[in-house]
Design brief:
Layout: H1 2-9, E1 13-15, H2 27-38, E2 44-46, H3 54-63, E3 72-77, H4 81-86, H5 93-105, E4 110-117, H6 124-144, E5 150-157, H7 174-191, E6 194-197, H8 200-211, H9 216-225, H10 239-248, H11 253-257, H12 278-290, H13 306-310
Parallel strand pairs: 1-2, 3-4, 4-5, 5-6
Helix pairs in contact: 2-3, 5-6, 6-7, 7-8, 9-10
This protein binds iron/sulfur cluster (SF4).
Length: 325
């Protein structure tokens, strides 16, 4: 697919996107083959989201030649162990800094770290921890690489999406998100760390579109008829058009963004079967509130529903699969 895509389009950039690319059972093989096939093509290749472990460094080292001067990207998502337990991304601080040290020792000069704000139960302490993590990573880099080290924090705001354990939660209000962003902006500027982020208005628009029910269709049409187009481009964004569109349909946009739903509410997307059951997501949500995390389900199956729904797609040979399709 990569070969066909490159030949058909002339693009020079390929990314293997996933919540965690290194969870793919044959990722090393795949990256080695990509390297063999494309190393003389002047191609930029990225694996933007990796588990924070030394295996990820082996993977990236494999691709280094394909992206000379490129940076390493990690997605710790949250900067305190407590917060990472809430989002089921357990990671010891010690393991994180060990991985960071190894990345710099392997010669990488630029490191991008993705974090999220607006997570459930988040406090300003958790937000400050993001800044402190960036500063500590910068110090480690400077010690190993020297002053040329570049740290980049990518900050996204959580929009709790359908079919996820946070689907019942409200989105944080723009003024609260802005306060957190301002804090991080001031701190990173002072420390000489680059920071990029989503503006709160785009977060709000995205939350309307991604969490809406079937009535949102008329809102989208009305907004479009009144000039909404390419809203993700900062200069084109105009939330007022969208607010007017909601009003034209007698709908309240806050209903879609800021209302916390009860666990037994029928959700607009409940009739869509994605494989994972609603009960499983509920359990995940409840565990998250207790800070309880799930282990890799390759070792223990939690009966999430995938096998029941997609069992017929299981490959006959299970050599390199763990049973789930
Ligand atoms: S059914 Fe598959 S995906 Fe779901 S918990 Fe079990 S092993 Fe994991």
């Amino acid at each position: 697919m990569i070969e066909d895509g490159l030949n058909a389009t002339g693009f020079e950039e390929v990314g293997l996107l996933s919540l965690s690319s290194s969870d793919h059972t044959e990722i090393l093989d795949l990256t080695q083959k990509v390297h063999q096939t494309f190393h003389d093509r002047n191609l930029s290749f990225s694996l933007p989201s990796l588990r924070i472990e030394s295996f990820s460094i082996d993977l990236m080292d494999e691709l280094k030649e394909l992206k000379p001067g490129g940076g390493f990207t990690l997605a710790p998502e949250a900067a305190t162990e407590r917060m990472r337990a809430v989002i089921n991304k357990p990671l010891d601080d010690e393991d994180f800094y060990q991985t960071v040290t190894k990345i710099f020792e392997n010669g990488w000069r630029s490191l991008k770290l993705y974090y999220m704000i607006g997570l459930p139960t988040e406090t300003m302490e958790d937000v400050d921890a993001i800044l402190q993590a960036g500063i500590k990573v910068q110090q480690i880099g400077k010690k190993i690489i020297g002053k040329s080290v570049k740290i980049h924090l990518g900050i996204a705001s959580l929009i709790s999406k359908p079919h996820t354990p946070f689907q019942w939660l409200a989105v944080q209000r723009p003024e609260i998100i802005q306060e957190k962003l301002d804090y991080l902006k001031a701190g990173t500027r002072k420390a000489g760390i680059k920071m990029s982020y989503n503006i709160p208005d785009s977060t709000l628009l995205e939350s309307w579109l991604s969490r809406g029910d079937r009535r949102i269709g008329a809102v989208i049409q009305n907004a479009w008829e009144n000039g909404a187009k390419f809203d993700a481009w900062g200069e084109r964004e105009n939330l007022q058009i969208w607010r007017n569109a909601f009003a034209s349909q007698n709908l309240d946009p806050d209903f879609y963004a800021y209302r916390e739903k009860s666990l037994d509410e029928v959700l607009p997307w409940d009739h869509i079967n994605i494989g994972v059951t609603k009960n499983y997501l509920k359990r995940d949500f409840e565990w998250s509130q207790l800070g309880r995390t799930r282990k890799d389900c390759r070792n223990v199956c939690y009966s999430c529903g995938i096998l029941d729904t997609f069992g017929n797609q299981r490959p006959p040979e299970t050599v390199s699969y763990w049973g789930c399709p």
